[in-house]
Amino acid sequence: MPKEIELDDFIGKPCKSRVAFEFVPKRKQSLRLETVAERLRTAGVFVEVDTPFIVMLKIEGMSVSLFKSGKILVKQTRDEREARGIASRLAGMIKQ
Amino acid sequence: MPKLLALVSGGIDSAAAAALALEQGLEIAAAHFERAPFSDSAVEDKAKRIAAFLSEKFNAPIRLHVIPHGKYLTQIARNCEMRYVCVMCRRMMLRIASEIAIAEKCDALLTGESLGQVASQTLHNLSAEHGASSIPVARPFLCMDKLEIERVGKRFGTYELSILPGGCCEMVPPKPATRATIEKILAEEKKIDIAAIAADARAMEKICEFGFGKSKGQTAE
User: B78 vs A56: CB contact, 8 Å cut-off?
Assistant: First the structure.
């Protein structure tokens, strides 16, 4: 069983691909990704792909996916601390 | 000798199915649908390593067609009901693969699909996929469970390559449809330009050859 990572509003764990971490909201969510993507663009985040189901972002050079369900996937890293930092930053931007 | 076009995802089942066909003395060509940006490049690398391994193990020339699939998935996510994405994704793969198969003079497609293995691989969904390919589809693992398929992969040595790190598909919805109907899928497909997307994907296809004398492992684009 992968070790769980606790954030304030998320439960995180290594993805089964072993080169990513996923952070799932503790409470059920349904984000309006069109609005979220626009807000992130305004905040200077590079939005690579945006659809109503998933947006794909670059944050501090890292590839990150954000799902309608609120799940955050921080990719191409095995560093838990780094992934947690990126997820916290994105979660903060979504909340604003 | 009959020839099959094996759909190779980089995972356990499709690699084992291709090995099984080669062991039976069948010829194969292969197709991999790369889903960037919805999966990372490690997945495509795994498909190439599997094709190279099979070519060497069975002393068989294998031409691997790598087809971009991400643009199609983006169109589905923007325009269609996401719970049908897995069926629509497979229908497009079968559609394009059957075109490649005909060009490669293959008699049928070969997949590693197995009933119930993932939520979307149900008999209803397979029925809804029927007709996307213009040639027959061989599914040697249809009624085998995961452990049995893994045993086949371990016997041939493909298992170890298939479990190397590589991203999952990010387009799989939390609750994919398990009882899709062909009528519903055709209605969803009408929301996007299937023919144009398929033609674009074919135009951007890359070909890697393994076991063709000096050209082994080369990429012909």
Answer: no
